[in-house]
Amino acid sequence: MTTHHTLPTFYFYGSRLRLQAPAIAATSSNHTTLTSATLKSPEKGGAFLGMRAIDNLLVLRSSNPTATVSASADLESAANTVRKFYDGINRRDLASVEGIIADDCIYEDLVFPRPFVGRKSILDFFRQFMDSISRDLQFAIDDISEEDASAVGVTWHLEWKGKPFPFSKGCSFYRLDVINGQRQILYGRDCVEPATKPGDAALTIIRGVTWLLEKFPSLADRLSDAGIHWGSFYLENLSRRKPGRGFEQHLLPFPPLTPMQHPQHQRKATKNVNRAVSFESPLKLLPLHLTCGLGLALGFWVAFNIYTLTIIQNSAETLLILWAVEALVLIPLYSLFRHDTDQCSFVKAIVRATLLGLPAGALVNGLGAIVLGAPVGIQHFKKTVHWSLLMSLFTFVPAAAVYGSSWTYWHRIFAHTKPAGSTDLIIFLSAHGAVIGAWFGAWPMPLDWERPWQEWPICVTYGAIIGYSIGLVVSFGFVVYNYRVHHTKAD
Protein backbone atom coordinates (compact mmCIF):
# COMPACT_ATOMS: atom_id res chain seq x y z
CA MET A 1 0.00 0.00 0.00
CA THR A 2 1.37 3.37 -0.94
CA THR A 3 1.20 6.36 1.46
CA HIS A 4 1.33 9.97 0.16
CA HIS A 5 3.08 12.78 1.99
CA THR A 6 3.61 16.41 1.02
CA LEU A 7 7.31 17.21 1.20
CA PRO A 8 8.68 20.65 0.40
CA THR A 9 11.40 20.91 -2.21
CA PHE A 10 14.10 23.50 -1.39
CA TYR A 11 15.89 25.43 -4.15
CA PHE A 12 19.03 27.25 -2.99
CA TYR A 13 20.62 29.83 -5.29
CA GLY A 14 22.15 33.19 -4.61
CA SER A 15 20.68 34.57 -1.37
CA ARG A 16 17.05 33.59 -2.06
CA LEU A 17 15.04 30.57 -1.02
CA ARG A 18 12.09 29.11 -2.89
CA LEU A 19 9.80 26.34 -1.78
CA GLN A 20 7.62 23.88 -3.64
CA ALA A 21 5.61 21.04 -2.16
CA PRO A 22 4.83 18.35 -4.76
CA ALA A 23 2.97 15.20 -3.89
CA ILE A 24 5.55 12.47 -3.52
CA ALA A 25 4.95 8.73 -3.28
CA ALA A 26 6.70 7.08 -0.34
CA THR A 27 7.52 3.41 -0.89
CA SER A 28 8.29 0.74 1.66
CA SER A 29 12.01 0.89 0.75
CA ASN A 30 12.27 4.31 2.48
CA HIS A 31 13.01 6.01 -0.85
CA THR A 32 10.93 8.79 -2.31
CA THR A 33 11.12 9.25 -6.04
CA LEU A 34 10.00 11.91 -8.42
CA THR A 35 10.75 12.37 -12.06
CA SER A 36 13.34 15.02 -12.64
CA ALA A 37 11.06 16.79 -15.11
CA THR A 38 9.06 18.23 -12.21
CA LEU A 39 12.14 19.71 -10.49
CA LYS A 40 13.99 22.28 -12.51
CA SER A 41 16.81 24.46 -11.23
CA PRO A 42 15.66 28.07 -11.68
CA GLU A 43 19.19 29.34 -12.20
CA LYS A 44 22.34 27.96 -13.66
CA GLY A 45 24.56 26.63 -10.94
CA GLY A 46 21.66 26.03 -8.55
CA ALA A 47 22.12 23.08 -6.18
CA PHE A 48 19.69 20.57 -4.69
CA LEU A 49 20.63 19.75 -1.11
CA GLY A 50 20.22 16.18 0.08
CA MET A 51 19.42 14.90 -3.45
CA ARG A 52 21.29 12.76 -5.92
CA ALA A 53 20.56 12.02 -9.57
CA ILE A 54 20.08 8.42 -10.61
CA ASP A 55 19.54 8.13 -14.33
CA ASN A 56 16.37 10.20 -14.88
CA LEU A 57 15.22 10.05 -11.25
CA LEU A 58 15.92 12.20 -8.20
CA VAL A 59 16.06 10.34 -4.91
CA LEU A 60 15.37 12.02 -1.52
CA ARG A 61 16.63 10.07 1.48
CA SER A 62 14.27 9.81 4.42
CA SER A 63 14.77 7.92 7.65
CA ASN A 64 11.02 7.94 8.33
CA PRO A 65 8.47 7.62 5.54
CA THR A 66 5.87 9.42 7.64
CA ALA A 67 8.10 12.40 8.49
CA THR A 68 7.36 15.82 7.03
CA VAL A 69 9.77 18.67 6.43
CA SER A 70 9.01 22.08 7.89
CA ALA A 71 8.31 24.73 5.22
CA SER A 72 8.88 27.81 7.31
CA ALA A 73 12.71 27.91 7.40
CA ASP A 74 12.41 30.57 10.14
CA LEU A 75 11.77 33.32 7.60
CA GLU A 76 9.07 35.89 8.33
CA SER A 77 6.76 36.96 5.54
CA ALA A 78 6.98 40.55 4.35
CA ALA A 79 3.59 41.41 5.88
CA ASN A 80 4.52 39.90 9.25
CA THR A 81 7.82 41.78 9.21
CA VAL A 82 5.95 45.06 8.78
CA ARG A 83 3.52 44.05 11.54
CA LYS A 84 6.47 43.44 13.86
CA PHE A 85 7.79 46.88 12.94
CA TYR A 86 4.55 48.59 14.02
CA ASP A 87 4.28 46.39 17.11
CA GLY A 88 7.76 47.46 18.20
CA ILE A 89 6.88 51.13 17.72
CA ASN A 90 3.68 50.71 19.73
CA ARG A 91 5.58 49.00 22.56
CA ARG A 92 8.30 51.72 22.37
CA ASP A 93 10.81 48.90 21.88
CA LEU A 94 13.46 50.17 19.48
CA ALA A 95 15.65 47.12 20.13
CA SER A 96 13.09 44.88 18.41
CA VAL A 97 12.76 47.32 15.52
CA GLU A 98 16.49 47.72 14.91
CA GLY A 99 16.95 44.29 13.32
CA ILE A 100 14.02 44.85 10.95
CA ILE A 101 15.58 47.98 9.37
CA ALA A 102 18.40 47.47 6.86
CA ASP A 103 21.70 49.30 7.33
CA ASP A 104 21.18 51.46 4.21
CA CYS A 105 17.40 51.80 4.51
CA ILE A 106 15.75 54.97 3.19
CA TYR A 107 12.68 56.21 5.04
CA GLU A 108 10.53 59.02 3.64
CA ASP A 109 7.99 60.76 5.84
CA LEU A 110 6.38 63.30 3.52
CA VAL A 111 5.89 65.70 6.42
CA PHE A 112 9.67 66.25 6.42
CA PRO A 113 11.61 67.93 3.59
CA ARG A 114 14.29 65.22 3.31
CA PRO A 115 14.33 61.44 3.73
CA PHE A 116 16.04 59.72 6.63
CA VAL A 117 18.95 57.68 5.32
CA GLY A 118 20.51 54.79 7.23
CA ARG A 119 19.41 52.72 10.20
CA LYS A 120 20.86 55.10 12.80
CA SER A 121 19.10 58.15 11.36
CA ILE A 122 15.77 56.31 11.18
CA LEU A 123 16.06 54.98 14.73
CA ASP A 124 16.91 58.48 15.99
CA PHE A 125 13.78 59.80 14.29
CA PHE A 126 11.53 57.18 15.87
CA ARG A 127 13.22 57.72 19.24
CA GLN A 128 12.27 61.40 19.06
CA PHE A 129 8.78 60.41 17.91
CA MET A 130 8.34 58.10 20.90
CA ASP A 131 9.66 60.71 23.34
CA SER A 132 7.29 63.37 22.05
CA ILE A 133 3.99 61.44 22.28
CA SER A 134 2.16 59.52 24.97
CA ARG A 135 2.30 55.73 25.19
CA ASP A 136 -1.47 55.75 24.85
CA LEU A 137 -1.15 56.87 21.21
CA GLN A 138 -0.85 53.68 19.15
CA PHE A 139 -0.75 52.68 15.48
CA ALA A 140 -3.74 50.58 14.41
CA ILE A 141 -3.43 48.73 11.08
CA ASP A 142 -6.60 48.90 8.97
CA ASP A 143 -5.43 46.76 6.07
CA ILE A 144 -2.17 45.26 4.81
CA SER A 145 -1.18 43.49 1.61
CA GLU A 146 -0.12 39.87 2.06
CA GLU A 147 0.69 38.45 -1.36
CA ASP A 148 4.00 40.07 -2.34
CA ALA A 149 7.20 38.82 -0.69
CA SER A 150 9.15 42.04 -1.29
CA ALA A 151 6.59 44.89 -1.23
CA VAL A 152 3.93 45.72 1.36
CA GLY A 153 1.22 48.38 1.43
CA VAL A 154 -0.42 49.38 4.72
CA THR A 155 -3.33 51.62 5.64
CA TRP A 156 -3.42 52.69 9.27
CA HIS A 157 -4.65 55.25 11.77
CA LEU A 158 -3.67 56.38 15.26
CA GLU A 159 -5.72 55.56 18.32
CA TRP A 160 -5.75 57.30 21.69
CA LYS A 161 -6.70 54.82 24.40
CA GLY A 162 -8.54 52.72 21.84
CA LYS A 163 -10.38 55.64 20.21
CA PRO A 164 -9.52 57.03 16.74
CA PHE A 165 -7.31 60.12 16.89
CA PRO A 166 -8.35 63.04 14.61
CA PHE A 167 -6.36 63.66 11.39
CA SER A 168 -4.31 60.50 11.89
CA LYS A 169 -5.17 58.34 8.90
CA GLY A 170 -2.25 57.34 6.73
CA CYS A 171 -0.85 54.84 4.28
CA SER A 172 2.66 53.46 4.04
CA PHE A 173 4.62 51.53 1.45
CA TYR A 174 7.57 49.28 2.20
CA ARG A 175 10.08 47.40 0.07
CA LEU A 176 11.86 44.48 1.72
CA ASP A 177 14.56 41.96 0.94
CA VAL A 178 16.22 38.98 2.62
CA ILE A 179 19.59 40.06 4.07
CA ASN A 180 21.75 37.58 5.99
CA GLY A 181 18.82 35.22 6.34
CA GLN A 182 16.43 37.84 7.72
CA ARG A 183 13.81 39.88 5.89
CA GLN A 184 14.51 43.61 6.37
CA ILE A 185 12.99 46.90 5.25
CA LEU A 186 15.02 48.61 2.53
CA TYR A 187 12.67 51.50 1.81
CA GLY A 188 9.62 53.05 3.45
CA ARG A 189 7.32 55.96 2.67
CA ASP A 190 4.59 57.44 4.91
CA CYS A 191 1.71 59.56 3.62
CA VAL A 192 -0.32 61.15 6.43
CA GLU A 193 -3.77 62.71 6.30
CA PRO A 194 -3.48 66.54 6.14
CA ALA A 195 -5.04 68.58 8.92
CA THR A 196 -6.66 70.88 6.35
CA LYS A 197 -8.36 69.62 3.21
CA PRO A 198 -8.50 72.08 0.29
CA GLY A 199 -10.93 69.95 -1.74
CA ASP A 200 -12.13 71.56 -4.96
CA ALA A 201 -10.13 74.70 -4.18
CA ALA A 202 -6.91 72.81 -4.91
CA LEU A 203 -8.20 71.91 -8.39
CA THR A 204 -9.07 75.57 -8.95
CA ILE A 205 -5.57 76.68 -8.00
CA ILE A 206 -3.96 74.02 -10.20
CA ARG A 207 -6.17 75.05 -13.11
CA GLY A 208 -5.21 78.70 -12.60
CA VAL A 209 -1.48 77.97 -12.43
CA THR A 210 -1.69 75.76 -15.53
CA TRP A 211 -3.50 78.51 -17.44
CA LEU A 212 -0.85 81.03 -16.35
CA LEU A 213 2.01 78.82 -17.52
CA GLU A 214 0.27 78.19 -20.86
CA LYS A 215 -0.19 81.92 -21.43
CA PHE A 216 3.37 82.75 -20.40
CA PRO A 217 5.68 79.92 -21.52
CA SER A 218 8.76 81.92 -20.55
CA LEU A 219 7.61 81.81 -16.93
CA ALA A 220 7.48 78.02 -17.07
CA ASP A 221 11.02 77.96 -18.49
CA ARG A 222 12.26 80.15 -15.66
CA LEU A 223 10.63 77.95 -13.05
CA SER A 224 12.16 74.88 -14.68
CA ASP A 225 15.61 76.49 -14.79
CA ALA A 226 15.27 77.49 -11.15
CA GLY A 227 14.37 73.93 -10.18
CA ILE A 228 17.34 72.53 -12.08
CA HIS A 229 19.63 75.12 -10.52
CA TRP A 230 18.63 74.42 -6.93
CA GLY A 231 18.69 70.70 -7.57
CA SER A 232 22.26 71.08 -8.80
CA PHE A 233 23.10 73.14 -5.75
CA TYR A 234 21.74 70.40 -3.47
CA LEU A 235 23.60 67.64 -5.29
CA GLU A 236 26.82 69.64 -5.27
CA ASN A 237 26.55 69.81 -1.48
CA LEU A 238 25.99 66.04 -1.35
CA SER A 239 29.12 65.47 -3.42
CA ARG A 240 31.24 67.09 -0.70
CA ARG A 241 30.25 64.44 1.82
CA LYS A 242 32.19 61.27 2.39
CA PRO A 243 30.99 58.65 -0.11
CA GLY A 244 29.07 55.76 1.39
CA ARG A 245 26.21 53.40 0.87
CA GLY A 246 22.64 54.55 0.68
CA PHE A 247 20.66 57.38 -0.81
CA GLU A 248 23.59 59.57 -1.83
CA GLN A 249 25.11 56.93 -4.10
CA HIS A 250 22.10 57.14 -6.41
CA LEU A 251 22.15 60.92 -6.57
CA LEU A 252 25.77 61.79 -7.16
CA PRO A 253 26.03 60.83 -10.87
CA PHE A 254 24.76 64.20 -12.10
CA PRO A 255 25.99 66.59 -14.82
CA PRO A 256 28.58 69.03 -13.40
CA LEU A 257 27.52 72.56 -12.58
CA THR A 258 28.32 75.28 -15.08
CA PRO A 259 30.60 78.10 -13.84
CA MET A 260 27.73 80.56 -13.42
CA GLN A 261 25.63 77.99 -11.58
CA HIS A 262 28.32 77.02 -9.12
CA PRO A 263 27.59 78.14 -5.53
CA GLN A 264 31.10 79.62 -5.23
CA HIS A 265 30.19 82.26 -7.79
CA GLN A 266 27.01 83.02 -5.87
CA ARG A 267 28.96 83.38 -2.66
CA LYS A 268 31.33 85.80 -4.37
CA ALA A 269 28.41 87.77 -5.75
CA THR A 270 26.85 88.16 -2.30
CA LYS A 271 30.08 88.53 -0.35
CA ASN A 272 29.97 92.31 -0.31
CA VAL A 273 26.29 92.26 0.63
CA ASN A 274 26.93 90.10 3.67
CA ARG A 275 29.87 92.26 4.74
CA ALA A 276 27.68 95.36 4.74
CA VAL A 277 25.28 93.84 7.28
CA SER A 278 26.09 94.59 10.90
CA PHE A 279 24.59 93.76 14.25
CA GLU A 280 22.62 96.72 15.56
CA SER A 281 22.50 97.68 19.21
CA PRO A 282 19.62 95.97 21.04
CA LEU A 283 18.60 99.33 22.51
CA LYS A 284 18.19 100.70 19.00
CA LEU A 285 15.95 97.78 17.97
CA LEU A 286 13.94 97.54 21.20
CA PRO A 287 11.47 100.27 20.13
CA LEU A 288 10.82 98.31 16.93
CA HIS A 289 9.83 95.19 18.88
CA LEU A 290 7.74 97.05 21.41
CA THR A 291 5.95 99.24 18.89
CA CYS A 292 4.99 96.32 16.63
CA GLY A 293 3.46 94.52 19.59
CA LEU A 294 1.75 97.66 20.87
CA GLY A 295 0.31 98.28 17.39
CA LEU A 296 -1.66 95.03 17.61
CA ALA A 297 -2.83 95.85 21.13
CA LEU A 298 -3.90 99.32 19.96
CA GLY A 299 -5.85 97.76 17.08
CA PHE A 300 -7.82 95.51 19.43
CA TRP A 301 -8.43 98.44 21.77
CA VAL A 302 -9.76 100.65 18.97
CA ALA A 303 -12.03 97.90 17.64
CA PHE A 304 -13.54 97.11 21.03
CA ASN A 305 -13.70 100.49 22.79
CA ILE A 306 -14.46 102.82 19.89
CA TYR A 307 -16.42 100.63 17.48
CA THR A 308 -17.64 97.93 19.93
CA LEU A 309 -16.37 95.14 17.72
CA THR A 310 -14.97 91.73 18.63
CA ILE A 311 -13.15 89.33 16.38
CA ILE A 312 -15.61 86.53 17.19
CA GLN A 313 -18.77 88.46 16.34
CA ASN A 314 -17.37 90.91 13.76
CA SER A 315 -14.39 89.14 12.20
CA ALA A 316 -14.06 91.13 8.96
CA GLU A 317 -14.43 94.58 10.58
CA THR A 318 -12.06 93.76 13.44
CA LEU A 319 -9.41 92.41 11.07
CA LEU A 320 -9.74 95.56 8.97
CA ILE A 321 -9.00 97.75 11.99
CA LEU A 322 -6.15 95.46 13.09
CA TRP A 323 -4.22 95.54 9.83
CA ALA A 324 -4.90 99.24 9.23
CA VAL A 325 -3.57 100.29 12.66
CA GLU A 326 -0.64 97.86 12.45
CA ALA A 327 0.27 99.15 8.98
CA LEU A 328 0.40 102.76 10.23
CA VAL A 329 2.88 101.64 12.89
CA LEU A 330 4.89 98.88 11.22
CA ILE A 331 5.62 100.28 7.75
CA PRO A 332 7.24 103.59 8.85
CA LEU A 333 9.24 101.80 11.56
CA TYR A 334 10.77 99.23 9.21
CA SER A 335 11.36 101.93 6.57
CA LEU A 336 13.75 103.61 9.02
CA PHE A 337 15.95 100.48 8.78
CA ARG A 338 16.10 100.39 4.94
CA HIS A 339 19.49 99.12 3.79
CA ASP A 340 19.90 101.35 0.71
CA THR A 341 19.65 104.73 2.41
CA ASP A 342 21.68 106.43 -0.33
CA GLN A 343 19.40 105.30 -3.16
CA CYS A 344 16.06 104.96 -1.39
CA SER A 345 14.45 107.70 0.65
CA PHE A 346 12.26 107.16 3.67
CA VAL A 347 9.13 108.04 1.67
CA LYS A 348 10.08 105.68 -1.17
CA ALA A 349 10.55 102.83 1.29
CA ILE A 350 7.06 103.46 2.68
CA VAL A 351 5.56 103.56 -0.82
CA ARG A 352 7.17 100.32 -1.99
CA ALA A 353 6.13 98.52 1.19
CA THR A 354 2.55 99.80 0.93
CA LEU A 355 1.90 99.55 -2.81
CA LEU A 356 4.03 96.49 -3.62
CA GLY A 357 4.75 94.47 -0.49
CA LEU A 358 1.31 94.66 1.12
CA PRO A 359 -0.85 93.48 -1.84
CA ALA A 360 1.72 90.95 -3.05
CA GLY A 361 1.99 89.41 0.40
CA ALA A 362 -1.79 89.36 0.79
CA LEU A 363 -2.16 87.53 -2.53
CA VAL A 364 0.39 84.86 -1.58
CA ASN A 365 -1.03 84.37 1.92
CA GLY A 366 -4.62 84.28 0.67
CA LEU A 367 -3.91 81.71 -2.03
CA GLY A 368 -1.90 79.63 0.42
CA ALA A 369 -4.76 79.64 2.92
CA ILE A 370 -7.27 78.58 0.26
CA VAL A 371 -5.04 75.76 -0.96
CA LEU A 372 -4.68 74.53 2.63
CA GLY A 373 -8.41 74.45 3.20
CA ALA A 374 -9.71 77.95 3.95
CA PRO A 375 -13.40 78.23 2.97
CA VAL A 376 -14.23 79.86 -0.36
CA GLY A 377 -17.39 81.87 -0.90
CA ILE A 378 -18.89 85.32 -0.95
CA GLN A 379 -19.66 85.20 2.78
CA HIS A 380 -15.98 84.50 3.53
CA PHE A 381 -14.42 86.84 0.96
CA LYS A 382 -14.03 89.93 3.19
CA LYS A 383 -12.69 87.89 6.10
CA THR A 384 -10.10 86.18 3.89
CA VAL A 385 -8.98 89.47 2.31
CA HIS A 386 -8.49 91.27 5.64
CA TRP A 387 -6.79 88.25 7.20
CA SER A 388 -4.44 88.05 4.21
CA LEU A 389 -3.54 91.73 4.56
CA LEU A 390 -2.73 91.23 8.25
CA MET A 391 -0.56 88.21 7.43
CA SER A 392 1.19 90.26 4.74
CA LEU A 393 2.16 92.81 7.41
CA PHE A 394 3.64 89.98 9.47
CA THR A 395 5.59 88.40 6.60
CA PHE A 396 6.16 90.34 3.35
CA VAL A 397 5.90 94.03 4.26
CA PRO A 398 8.92 94.24 6.63
CA ALA A 399 11.22 92.72 3.99
CA ALA A 400 9.76 94.99 1.28
CA ALA A 401 10.32 98.10 3.43
CA VAL A 402 13.90 97.18 4.35
CA TYR A 403 15.20 95.50 1.18
CA GLY A 404 12.77 96.39 -1.59
CA SER A 405 12.62 93.78 -4.33
CA SER A 406 16.23 92.57 -4.08
CA TRP A 407 16.19 88.81 -4.78
CA THR A 408 19.52 88.29 -3.00
CA TYR A 409 18.21 89.58 0.31
CA TRP A 410 14.82 87.87 0.07
CA HIS A 411 16.44 84.55 -0.70
CA ARG A 412 18.91 84.94 2.13
CA ILE A 413 16.16 85.64 4.66
CA PHE A 414 13.32 83.33 3.63
CA ALA A 415 14.79 80.55 1.45
CA HIS A 416 18.38 80.15 2.57
CA THR A 417 17.41 80.73 6.25
CA LYS A 418 20.75 82.38 7.06
CA PRO A 419 20.00 85.83 8.48
CA ALA A 420 23.16 87.94 8.39
CA GLY A 421 22.23 90.76 10.77
CA SER A 422 19.87 92.00 13.45
CA THR A 423 17.21 93.24 11.03
CA ASP A 424 17.30 89.93 9.19
CA LEU A 425 16.70 88.07 12.44
CA ILE A 426 13.64 90.16 13.28
CA ILE A 427 12.09 89.75 9.82
CA PHE A 428 12.93 86.05 9.60
CA LEU A 429 11.77 84.91 13.05
CA SER A 430 8.62 87.04 13.27
CA ALA A 431 7.47 85.97 9.78
CA HIS A 432 8.07 82.30 10.43
CA GLY A 433 6.44 82.61 13.84
CA ALA A 434 3.29 84.07 12.26
CA VAL A 435 3.05 81.34 9.63
CA ILE A 436 3.67 78.51 12.09
CA GLY A 437 1.23 80.03 14.57
CA ALA A 438 -1.48 80.32 11.90
CA TRP A 439 -0.92 76.68 10.95
CA PHE A 440 -1.31 75.52 14.54
CA GLY A 441 -4.28 77.84 14.96
CA ALA A 442 -6.09 76.04 12.14
CA TRP A 443 -6.07 72.69 13.95
CA PRO A 444 -9.25 73.23 16.01
CA MET A 445 -11.32 74.34 13.00
CA PRO A 446 -12.54 70.87 11.82
CA LEU A 447 -13.19 69.54 15.34
CA ASP A 448 -16.79 69.14 16.50
CA TRP A 449 -16.45 71.30 19.60
CA GLU A 450 -19.04 73.75 18.22
CA ARG A 451 -17.33 76.82 19.65
CA PRO A 452 -17.76 80.19 17.90
CA TRP A 453 -14.01 80.85 17.87
CA GLN A 454 -13.45 77.76 15.69
CA GLU A 455 -14.83 79.52 12.61
CA TRP A 456 -12.59 80.89 9.88
CA PRO A 457 -10.44 82.93 10.40
CA ILE A 458 -10.78 83.53 14.15
CA CYS A 459 -8.57 80.78 15.59
CA VAL A 460 -6.11 81.15 12.70
CA THR A 461 -5.79 84.87 13.47
CA TYR A 462 -5.17 84.20 17.16
CA GLY A 463 -2.54 81.61 16.25
CA ALA A 464 -0.80 83.98 13.82
CA ILE A 465 -0.72 86.83 16.36
CA ILE A 466 0.63 84.57 19.11
CA GLY A 467 3.27 83.13 16.77
CA TYR A 468 4.24 86.60 15.55
CA SER A 469 4.59 87.88 19.12
CA ILE A 470 6.73 84.89 20.09
CA GLY A 471 8.89 85.52 17.02
CA LEU A 472 9.44 89.13 18.11
CA VAL A 473 10.47 88.09 21.62
CA VAL A 474 12.78 85.32 20.42
CA SER A 475 14.35 87.55 17.76
CA PHE A 476 15.17 90.19 20.38
CA GLY A 477 16.91 87.52 22.44
CA PHE A 478 19.00 86.54 19.41
CA VAL A 479 19.78 90.19 18.72
CA VAL A 480 21.16 90.64 22.24
CA TYR A 481 23.17 87.41 22.02
CA ASN A 482 24.66 88.10 18.58
CA TYR A 483 25.50 91.68 19.53
CA ARG A 484 27.49 90.47 22.52
CA VAL A 485 29.26 87.74 20.54
CA HIS A 486 30.06 90.13 17.70
CA HIS A 487 31.57 92.75 19.98
CA THR A 488 33.44 90.14 22.03
CA LYS A 489 35.18 88.90 18.88
CA ALA A 490 35.89 92.46 17.79
CA ASP A 491 37.59 93.21 21.12
UniProtKB/TrEMBL annotation:
Q: In which pathway does it act?
A: Glycolipid biosynthesis; glycosylphosphatidylinositol-anchor biosynthesis
Membrane-crossing residue ranges in chain numbering: 285-307, 319-337, 349-372, 384-404, 425-442, 462-483
Topology with respect to the bilayer: Multi-pass membrane protein
Q: What InterPro entries does the database record attribute to this sequence?
A: GPI_biosynthesis_protein_Pig-F, NTF2-like_dom_sf, SnoaL-like
Pfam families from the entry? Answer: PIG-F, SnoaL_2
Where is this protein primarily located? endoplasmic reticulum
Keyword line:
Endoplasmic reticulum, GPI-anchor biosynthesis, Membrane, Transmembrane, Transmembrane helix
Q: Where is the SnoaL-like domain?
A: 82-177
Give an example GO cellular component term for this record. endoplasmic reticulum membrane
GO BP field: GPI anchor biosynthetic process
SUPFAM superfamilies, sorted: NTF2-like (SSF54427)
Location of the protein in the cell = Endoplasmic reticulum membrane
Instruction: Write down the Gene3D superfamilies for this protein, in alphabetical order.
Output: 3.10.450.50
Q: What is this protein called?
A: Nuclear transport factor 2 (NTF2) family protein
